[in-house]
Predict the 3D structure of the following.
Amino acid sequence: MAGGRFRELLNKYGKVALGVHLSVSAASITGLYIAIKNNLDVESALEKVRFKQLESILEKVGMAGPKEEELDADISNPESKQRNRTAELVASSGGALALAVLCNKALFPVRVPITIAVTPPIARFLARRQIIKS
């Protein structure tokens, strides 16, 4: 239960935990935005990782990967052209930032453990430097 531990962390460390989490989120959005702007094919990356929550979000915005019957049709017709749906979405709607935010939202279960692991050492460091009161 990362959600419960995250609440405990917010109660214990307060502003430090919030700052760490917002920093992790900002770094995540920035990295995803740069990757998307550099034509990272989100669908191909998802096929390698198979992250279900992110797939459902991309399905809502019309970027879901091909269904099994579509894959069978592609195999039978080798002349079908490969498409980069990420590039199409970004070019058509200017949605690189929106797509980065959606991917970031789906990666919440990955960001929370990072925040939980990093917050105590940062709080100790800030307390040692007398930047915050412990």
Q: What stands out?
A: The two ends are 26 Å apart (CA to CA). The longest helix spans residues 15-37.
